[in-house]
Amino acid sequence: MDTALPGVTRPQTSRSYWLCQLGGWGLYAMIEAGIATRILRLPVGISLLELTGYALVGVALTHLLRAVLRWRAWARLPFYALAPRILAMALLLSLPVAAMTDHLSIAALWAPEQVDVDSLHISPGMIRPARALILVINTTALFAIWAVCYLTITALRDQRSAALRQSELTRALQLAELRLLKSQLNPHFLFNSLNSVRALIADDPGGAQKAVTQLARTLRYTLTAGREELVTLARELEIVEDYLALESLRFGERLRIARDLAPETMGVRVPVMLLQTVVENAIKHGIAELPAGGELRIVAALRGGALHIEVENTRPQAAQRALRNEGEGVGLDNAAERLRLLFGANARLDLDLSSAMVAVARIRIPGTA
Amino acid sequence: MRALIVDDEPLARRELARLLAEFGWVDIVGEAANAGEAAPLIERLLPDLLFLDIQMPGGTGFDLLQRLEHLPRVIFTTAYDKHALRAFEVNALDYLLKPIEPERLAAALARAQAAVASAPGAAATGGAILERLFLRDGDRCWFVPLREVRLFTAEGNYVRLSWDQSHPLLGRPLSSLEPRLDPKRFFRANRRQIVNLECIESVELGVNGRLHVQLRGGPEVEISRRQARLFRQLTSL
């Protein structure tokens, strides 16, 4: 999982890896070559050639070390498990390096007198084995340091990209929530409803009180819609009914409502504000555009374990539709996307405009049990 | 002052009527629920003032104004409509936001009354002569006082107006406009153009005896040979 970085960052990562590899080993080889020519008085050509070979072998073996680190996912091990593994691996890899170097002129770089252990009075016969031992220890340390550097750098990088991803995700979610809120708080509906209430206050105080309650419930539901993703269909329908009662005040006899709701659908969990959005869309592009009004029909049924909801509205004539600058289905795109995000590709929200007389929005929510 | 209310919501009409009851001098002569109902009612009743909702089924308030032969003073009403609000503000039109505040209604009525008093409406002239036109072009719209229009030019079934610095297009043919123009002020110069006589700066006699009229701040218009004699009589040249 932690290596599953987005594809675009891979070339960048591998380029900086190779830059570090070649730069690090190159620098090491240069310094050692400097020591070899100035202190051991080796010919420049020889020491450069041999140390280049040493560095190239180092690059190859640490690349192998990196492969093992990634393959076994050692970065996720705790320190007490990680440290011995790294030391063992470094030691293992140092052996061929030491065996090779032992036959080269630059082996003198690791001779006991060069590393200040000649005070131990090593007998002449033991000088060669001592040099091999120093070579092994030195190379092991080199590989171990390499591994620590590699793990530190990759850990820092992963941490930063994870933080970045997290903040991007949070931002996308907030944006989606904001869009939901903005699309739901329909100011046209809100101010027209307030106007209806103002009109009712004198003529029908009881009706005005009821309307205020319904408006308050609708607003509260809308404003808290971001908190819960799913609600029961029964709960969503309560708000749809409040909304329709308010729209009925505005449109009067122009809005005729029919319902066919199977009782077993009431407990099914649906995305909050989904049906509300679809009904609002049907009013906006149907009844509100019809001088003589029209019918709104809401049907809910369970078929094959899936919830099917249909919202049907009388359509304005084509000539009148052409006057509007906004399409009938535009408002539903957001709702359809939220439905897909929550329930996957099996969930559907389609607007059927094949009939000239009615527009039908069809919702399909697969069973979650 | 005779007023007419156009709004598709019965409760909104009732609320406005109640608010207007405070102003005894405003007489509500009729109500309409959409543009289709409103147009014949306005032509018949010739109100001085129109309270006009924008979003209505079967045509917006702007659509209605473009269809009208008789154009009363207009106070737009809307609950919330981004496009309409922009149009109101850009074009300095008088509008009220629903729910309507009584103080704002009083101010808008005072402005309308002043406008009606200074320019008696169609009711006074019998509606035969057009005083103003409503034009819309995207976000821009105009109530054009016709005496300020220098020139009408036919463009197919439309008419291009030369008015101030703008050249709005009117969605009706020149032939239907002509009988409604004040004959003392407007003169048919040729097959395609009608000029405002008050806007003529100079008249020149061109080659082959044709008259060329230079309009103030506008183009030069040629007067057809058939109309030239009439023009001379009218302007006693």
Structure overview:
- The complex is a heterodimer of chains A (369) and B (237).
- With 369 residues, chain A is α+β, with helices and mostly antiparallel strands.
- Chain A has 2 domains: 7-175, no CATH class; 185-365, Heat Shock Protein 90 (2-Layer Sandwich).
- Chain A is built from 10 helices and 7 strands.
- A 5-stranded mixed β-sheet of chain A has the order 2-4-5-7-6, covered by helices on one side.
- In chain A, a hairpin with a 2-residue loop joins strand 4 and strand 5.
- Chain A is rod-shaped and about 115 Å long.
- With 237 residues, chain B is an alpha/beta fold.
- In chain B, a hairpin with a 5-residue loop joins strand 9 (158-163) and strand 10 (169-170).
- The mean pLDDT of chain B is 87.
- A 5-stranded parallel β-sheet of chain B has the order 2-1-3-4-5, sandwiched between helices. Chain B has a 5-stranded antiparallel β-sheet with strand order 10-9-8-12-11, with no helix packed on it. In chain B, strands 13-14-15 form a 3-stranded antiparallel β-sheet.
- Chain B is 31% helix and 31% strand.
- Chain B folds into 2 domains: 2-128, Response regulator (Rossmann fold); 133-235, LytTr DNA-binding domain (OB fold (Dihydrolipoamide Acetyltransferase, E2P), Beta Barrel), CATH 2.40.50.1020.
Strand content of chain B: 25-35%
Structural class of chain B: alpha/beta
Number of discrete helical segments of chain B? 8
Instruction: Report mean pLDDT of chain A, rounded to a whole number.
Output: 85
Largest sheet of chain A: 5 strands, mixed
CATH topology of the largest domain in chain B: Rossmann fold
Q: Any low-confidence stretches of chain B, pLDDT <50, length ≥5?
A: none
Total domain count of chain A: 2
Number of domains of chain B: 2
The major beta sheet of chain B can be summarized as:
5 strands, parallel
So how many helices of chain A? Answer: 10
Question: Runs of chain A with pLDDT <50, length 5+?
Answer: 1-9
What is the H/E string of chain A? Answer: HHHHHHEHEEHEEHHEE
What's the total number of strands of chain B?
15
Shape of chain A: rod-shaped
Straight-line distance between termini of chain B: 44 Å
CATH topology of the largest domain in chain A: Heat Shock Protein 90
Structural class of chain A: alpha+beta
